[in-house]
């Protein structure tokens, strides 16, 4: 069973991101404030749940949360500021969009770069420990997957509808054959060997 809250009295927002290790597409972050007494029998780290279950839980979270927000940082911005800073940026923007101002942020992972005075706690594997972080992981993952499936229609050869932009063999094979799209992250090492890639 996950924990409902970290502090006894503060209004907490759980924060998580999805897509950090992908070769293509945005990094997406979510921030979620849940009621203090929130419980859910199946809510867990999004990676532990099948797709249909994630999508069903997402609808419940959006209905039950005190506030929630999702933010996208695209591949161009990732290339400009690097993936770590882009992850912080996505989380910061998600927090900024919340209609209630949290008094404490629970960040999944071991690092965070704040841009305001809201106190925060970094919690390693937090998406498997706290409901609010697990909820943020579900929102970030489902919104990103939805986006990748949409752009996969424009570029079916990269198999994004199943690999979501991660560096699978099929994705890398497609890069070898077709080169890079406008959605690929140019600052990432797209192929294990250093090849000259011809851009479309």
From TrEMBL:
Primary location: cytoplasm
What are the RNase H type-2 domain coordinates in residue numbering? 10-200
Entry keyword set: Cytoplasm, Endonuclease, Hydrolase, Manganese, Metal-binding, Nuclease
Subcellular localization, per the record? Cytoplasm
State how the cofactor is bound: Manganese or magnesium. Binds 1 divalent metal ion per monomer in the absence of substrate. May bind a second metal ion after substrate binding.
Residue ranges annotated as transmembrane are none
Q: Could you say which residues bind a divalent metal cation here?
A: 16-17, 108
Tell me which family the UniProt entry assigns to this protein: Belongs to the RNase HII family.
Q: What does this protein do?
A: Endonuclease that specifically degrades the RNA of RNA-DNA hybrids.
Name of the molecule in the record: Ribonuclease HII
Q: Which organism is it from?
A: Fulvivirga marina
Give the gene that encodes this protein: rnhB
